[in-house]
C-alpha cells in the first residue's frame, strides 16, 4: 500500500518545491571560463512574478545545468510531459535527460489551458518551442559577450557553448546563469488558456537540425502506476483534514424538504452541512463519512419526473424545440441539386448519452485555512478549477493555488471539478481542510454526460451515382450544457445547488468539410436539456467531443453512397477527397490492411461467425486519421469482436513516435468500448446506470487482438493535435465492418449484443 504523504512531501517530490519560485537555486560563483573566472552578468537572484511575459515562468536552468520546464497543462497518460521535454531540449541544445517538465500547478506555471482540444502539442508545444529557442538565444548572446566573439561564431553541445574551431574556449549554460533567473521579457499575445503564446525574436530550429524531436523516448509515469508507487489525488493527506460526502437527490429535480441531523448523532464527530440545496456530511474518517451519508435522513419534495422514457429518447430529440441552429458549411446550390437529382438517398442515425465512467469517482482536497487556499485536484484544468474555487468562495483572483495530481482518469469534463467545488464549500463551512470523494454509483450516475443526438443525412445523386449535393444535420442536446473548464460555479454541481445563475454555451458541431461534392450543407440544432440545473443528464465534453457520434453517422452514410454508386468504399473516398494528405492516408491504410476491393457487403462463406471489414476517415484539430476495422460477428450470441484495426495517422511533425502510437492504441480501445457497449440508461426520474453492470465497458478479453499503426511523419508541417483524432473514426469503421459482415445497417449505437441479435432476427424475417 502506498504510504500516505503530507502535502509538503508530495509536492516537493513531484515539483522540487511546494511554495516557492520554481526550482531549487544553488549559486556556484567563480567557475572557470576559458582560463578566467565567469561573471554572472545575466539575470537576477530574484525570480520575476509568474507571468506569461516572463521567460522564467516557463524555463529554469539550475546551477547543475539541469533544465526545468513549467507547462500549464497536464498529462492523461499520453506522454505530454515527455514530448514537451523533447521540444525544450531540442531548442536549447541539451540532452533530453537534462530536462524535466512540471505540469499544471498554478504556483509554478501560467494557465495554458489544461488538457483540452488535443492542444498540448499543437498550441502549448508550439509556444514552448519558441520560448526555449528564445532562452537559447539569450544564453548564446551572453556567452558571446563573455567569450569575446560574435554569436554566429558559437555552437552549443549539451548546454555547453563553445567557439567553432576552438572547442577549448567554452562556457556552459550553468556557468552563465550560476543559478540565477533569466529576468528576460517575452512578447505575449495577452491570451490565457489554449491560445496563450509567448515568444522572443529567436527563430526555432529547422526540422532538418532535429536530434531529440522525433525520437521514441519512453513515458516516465508507467512504472509508478504499475507498481503503485506514484501518488494520486486520493493519496493527498493534510494535517487536520476531515472527510466529506455530498448527498445527491434520490430522484432528479427534487429539492430538500427537511433534514434530520440527529439521525447521524451515533457517528462521533459527524456533522451536517446544508446551504440551500447543497447538502453534505463531514466526519473525521472516510468510513464515518460514508456511514453518515448513508444514515442521514432527508425528506425530498415529490419527483417532477423530468426525463422522457428512455425508449422515447430519439423521438423526443426529433420533436423538441430548437434553441440554437447553425450551418458550419453551406457551399453550392444544395436545394437546386435535390430538386434536379435522379435519386435522393436519406438516412438517420442515433447515438446515446454516454458516461465518462472513470476508473474511480472523483476526489479533491481543499484547505481554506491556508494562505493561499490550497487545492489538490485530478481535474484536466487545474488553473481553471482554482478559478472556480475562488469564485465559489468569493475570493480575489490569485487566492487559490491549484495543483494537478493524477486522478482516476478524465478525457473530457468528468466529475473532478465538481469534487473540488464541493470540497471548497465544505472546507469554508467547517473551517478545516476537507477531502471529498464520491462513490462508484455517484461517479457514474452524476458525472457530466456525452450528449445524445440524432443525425439526418441526405444526398442528391445523378443518374450515374455521382453525388451532386450532400447534407448532414445533427439535432442534439447541448455539447456543453456545463462548460468544460470548471472555472464558473454555474458549471458545477455545488454552484447549481447554491442557486447560481446558469449560462450554458449551447452549441454542437458538424463533421469537417473534407469531401468535395459540388454542393454541401453541414449544420446542427441544439435542444433544451431535460432539467436546467443539478441534472444527472447534464452534458459536456467526453473524449473527442461529439466526434464518435457524427462519424458513426457520416462514415456509414458515405459507405451507403458508395454502394449506391457501385463503388468500393476506398474507391469512393479517393474520388471525393482531393487533398493529397487525405488521399495518402486512405491509400496507406488500404495497403497496410490488405484491403480487397468490393461493392456492398461480404458475400463469402456464411457460417455462425461472420467476418467483415469497414473503413472510417476523419479530420480533427488538424490531425488526419484513416482506420480499417476487421470484426467478427457471432450470429447466435450477437457479440461483435472488433478483432483488428489498421490505422494510418498524419498529425504533421511527430514529436515522439512511441508516445503517439500508444496514444492511438488508447484512443482505439476507448472508442471500441463506446461503439459496442456504452449507453447511459435512465427512467423518468433518475439515471439508472450506476456501476459496471448497468454501464458495461469493454473488458480485456474483448480488446482488439491487433492495432497496426502506420505513422506518416511530415516534419515540414506543424505538429497537430493527436490526442483525440484516432478516437473519431472508430465508430463508423466498426459499424461499416458490421454491415460488411452481415448486410445489416445499424442506425443506432451502441452495437450491443441485444441490439445486434434483434437486428439480425429482423433481417432474417
Describe this structure in words.
This protein is α+β, with helices and mostly antiparallel strands and 765 residues long. The protein is 27% helix and 22% strand. It is built from 18 helices and 30 strands. The strands form 9 sheets. A 7-stranded mixed β-sheet has the order 13-14-11-22-19-20-21, sandwiched between helices. The longest helix is centred in the first third of the chain and has 29 residues, at 119-147. The radius of gyration is 28 Å and the shape is globular. The N and C termini lie far apart (57 Å).
Intertermini distance: 57 Å
Separate helix tally? 18
Number of strands: 30
Question: In percent terms, what proportion of residues is strand?
Answer: 15-25%
> Which ranges are low-confidence, i.e. pLDDT below 50, for 5 or more consecutive residues?
1-32
Gyration radius, to the nearest Å?
28 Å
Structural class: alpha+beta
**Can you tell me the CATH architecture of the largest domain?**
2-Layer Sandwich
CATH superfamily of the largest domain: Aldehyde oxidase/xanthine dehydrogenase, molybdopterin binding domain
Mean pLDDT: 94
**What is the highest CATH level, the class of the largest domain?**
Alpha Beta
Amino acid at each position: 500500500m502506498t504510504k500516505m504523504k503530507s502535502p509538503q512531501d508530495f509536492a516537493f517530490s513531484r515539483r522540487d518545491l511546494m511554495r516557492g519560485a520554481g526550482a531549487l537555486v544553488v549559486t556556484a560563483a567563480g567557475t572557470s571560463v576559458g582560463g578566467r573566472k565567469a561573471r554572472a552578468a545575466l539575470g537576477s537572484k530574484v525570480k520575476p512574478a509568474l507571468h506569461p511575459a516572463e521567460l522564467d515562468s516557463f524555463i529554469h536552468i539550475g546551477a547543475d545545468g539541469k533544465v526545468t520546464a513549467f507547462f500549464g497543462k497536464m498529462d492523461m497518460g499520453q506522454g505530454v510531459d515527455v514530448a514537451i521535454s523533447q521540444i525544450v531540449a531540442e531548442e536549447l541544445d541539451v540532452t533530453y535527460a537534462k530536462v524535466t517538465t512540471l505540469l499544471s500547478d498554478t504556483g509554478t506555471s501560467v494557465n495554458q489551458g489544461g488538457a483540452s482540444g488535443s492542444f498540448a502539442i499543437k498550441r502549448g508545444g508550439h509556444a514552448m518551442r519558441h520560448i526555449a529557442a528564445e532562452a537559447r538565444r539569450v544564453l548564446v548572446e551572453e556567452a558571446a559577450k563573455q567569450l569575446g566573439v560574435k554569436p554566429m561564431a558559437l555552437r552549443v553541445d549539451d548546454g555547453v557553448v563553445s567557439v567553432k574551431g576552438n572547442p577549448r574556449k567554452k562556457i556552459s549554460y550553468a556557468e552563465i546563469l550560476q543559478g540565477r533567473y533569466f529576468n528576460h521579457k517575452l512578447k505575449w499575445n495577452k491570451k490565457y488558456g489554449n491560445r496563450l503564446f509567448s515568444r522572443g525574436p529567436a527563430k526555432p530550429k529547422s526540422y532538418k537540425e532535429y536530434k531529440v524531436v522525433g525520437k521514441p523516448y519512453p513515458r516516465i509515469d508507467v512504472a509508478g502506476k504499475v507498481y503503485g508507487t506514484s501518488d494520486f489525488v486520493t493519496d493527498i493527506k493534510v494535517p487536520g483534514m476531515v472527510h466529506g460526502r455530498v448527498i445527491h437527490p434520490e430522484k432528479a429535480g427534487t429539492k430538500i424538504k427537511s433534514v434530520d441531523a440527529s439521525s447521524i448523532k451515533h457517528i462521533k464527530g459527524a456533522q451536517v452541512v446544508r446551504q440551500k440545496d447543497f447538502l453534505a456530511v463531514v466526519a473525521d474518517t472516510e468510513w464515518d463519512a460514508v456511514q453518515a451519508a448513508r444514515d442521514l435522513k432527508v425528506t425530498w419534495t415529490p419527483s417532477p419526473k423530468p426525463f422522457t422514457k428512455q425508449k422515447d429518447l430519439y423521438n423526443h430529440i426529433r420533436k423538441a424545440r430548437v434553441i440554437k441552429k447553425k450551418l458550419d458549411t453551406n457551399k453550392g446550390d444544395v436545394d437546386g441539386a435535390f430538386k434536379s437529382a435522379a435519386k435522393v438517398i436519406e438516412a438517420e442515425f442515433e447515438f446515446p448519452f454516454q458516461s465518462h465512467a472513470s476508473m474511480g469517482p472523483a476526489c479533491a482536497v481543499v484547505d481554506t485555512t491556508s494562505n493561499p487556499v490550497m487545492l489538490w485536484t485530478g481535474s484536466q484544468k487545474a488553473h481553471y478549477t482554482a478559478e472556480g474555487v475562488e469564485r465559489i468562495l468569493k475570493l480575489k483572483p490569485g487566492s487559490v493555488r491549484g495543483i494537478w495530481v493524477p486522478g482516476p482518469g478524465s478525457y473530457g469534463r468528468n466529475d473532478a471539478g465538481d469534487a473540488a467545488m464541493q470540497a471548497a464549500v465544505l472546507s469554508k463551512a467547517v473551517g478545516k481542510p476537507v477531502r471529498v470523494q464520491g462513490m462508484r454509483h455517484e461517479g457514474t450516475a452524476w458525472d457530466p454526460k456525452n450528449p445524445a443526438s440524432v443525425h439526418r443525412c441526405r444526398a442528391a445523386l445523378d443518374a450515374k451515382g455521382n453525388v451532386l449535393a450532400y447534407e448532414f444535420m445533427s439535432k442534439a442536446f447541448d455539447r456543453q450544457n456545463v462548460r468544460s473548464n470548471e472555472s464558473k460555479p454555474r458549471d458545477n454541481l455545488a454552484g447549481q445547488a447554491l442557486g447560481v445563475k446558469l449560462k450554458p454555451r449551447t452549441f454542437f458541431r458538424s463533421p469537417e468539410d473534407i469531401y468535395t461534392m459540388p454542393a454541401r450543407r453541414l449544420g446542427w440544432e441544439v435542444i433544451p436539456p431535460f432539467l436546467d440545473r443539478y441534472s444527472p443528464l447534464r452534458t459536456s465534453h467526453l473524449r473527442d467531443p461529439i466526434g464518435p457520434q457524427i462519424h458513426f453517422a457520416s462514415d456509414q452514410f458515405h459507405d451507403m453512397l458508395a454502394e449506391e454508386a457501385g463503388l468500393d468504399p476506398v474507391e469512393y473516398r479517393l474520388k471525393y477527397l482531393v487533398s493529397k494528405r487525405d488521399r495518402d492516408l486512405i491509400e496507406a491504410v488500404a495497403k497496410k490492411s490488405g484491403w480487397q476491393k468490393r461493392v456492398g457487403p461480404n458475400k463469402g462463406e456464411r457460417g455462425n461467425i461472420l467476418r467483415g471489414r469497414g473503413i472510417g476517415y476523419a479530420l480533427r484539430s488538424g490531425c488526419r486519421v484513416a482506420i480499417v476495422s476487421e470484426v467478427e460477428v457471432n450470429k447466435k450470441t450477437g457479440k461483435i469482436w472488433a478483432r483488428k484495426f489498421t490505422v494510418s495517422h498524419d498529425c504533421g511533425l511527430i514529436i515522439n513516435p512511441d508516445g503517439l502510437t500508444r496514444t492511438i492504441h488508447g484512443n482505439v480501445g476507448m472508442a471500441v468500448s463506446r461503439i459496442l457497449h456504452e449507453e447511459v440508461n435512465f427512467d423518468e426520474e433518475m439515471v439508472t446506470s450506476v456501476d459496471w453492470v448497468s454501464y458495461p465497458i469493454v473488458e480485456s478479453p474483448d480488446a482488439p487482438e491487433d492495432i497496426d499503426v502506420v505513422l506518416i511523419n511530415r516534419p515540414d508541417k506543424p505538429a497537430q493535435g493527436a490526442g483525440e483524432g484516432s478516437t473519431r473514426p472508430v465508430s463508423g469503421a466498426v459499424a461499416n465492418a458490421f454491415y460488411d459482415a452481415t448486410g445489416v445497417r445499424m442506425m443506432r449505437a451502441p452495437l450491443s449484443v441485444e441490439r445486434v441479435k434483434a437486428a439480425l432476427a429482423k433481417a432474417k424475417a
